[in-house]
Write a structure and sequence with these properties.
The protein is an alpha+beta fold. The protein contains three helices and six strands. The strands form two sheets. Strands 3-5-6-4 form a four-stranded mixed sheet. Strands 1-2 form a two-stranded antiparallel ribbon.
């Protein structure tokens, strides 16, 4: 393994580890309450593609979710104040670091210079039909 690849993976792991997540308990009463997660991530001013992230492909959620060849590894709520291209690079980097080779995006919103979305990361042993 090249030292630059190792440094890139370590930097990505530290970036992910730097995220702080707090889960709030849900009441067990008959009140319809949903659990929610608040997270605060590190501020990123620019994103550079990690080696291998170019192999993470983007597909419609209905295809990846319904594929017999893909299993979802994680769904991640994601916010970014970066430009569109930089946001996609950062999202592909995170997908690759988690071991995913495909991703789908839902709940895309842009407001006041901030893009929020849900990224669904998939491990697909075949991308045929996606």
């Amino acid at each position: 393994m090249k030292i630059t690849t190792l440094i890139g993976l370590v930097a990505s792991a530290l970036l992910l580890a730097g995220c702080h997540t707090t889960t709030h308990p849900v009441s067990t009463s008959n009140v319809s309450a949903k659990p929610y997660t608040e997270s605060t991530a590190l501020t990123i001013y620019e994103a550079h593609p990690l080696k291998g992230s170019e192999k993470v492909s983007v597909h419609a959620y209905s295809y990846t979710r319904g594929s017999d060849h893909c299993s979802r590894t994680i769904a991640l709520n994601f916010s970014s104040s970066l430009a569109y291209t930089q946001t996609m690079i950062a999202l592909r980097n995170r997908a690759m670091v988690t071991g995913a080779n495909a991703l789908s995006i839902t709940n895309w919103r842009e407001h006041a210079g901030v893009t929020t979305l849900t990224g669904h990361f998939f491990d697909c042993h075949s991308k045929k039909g996606l």
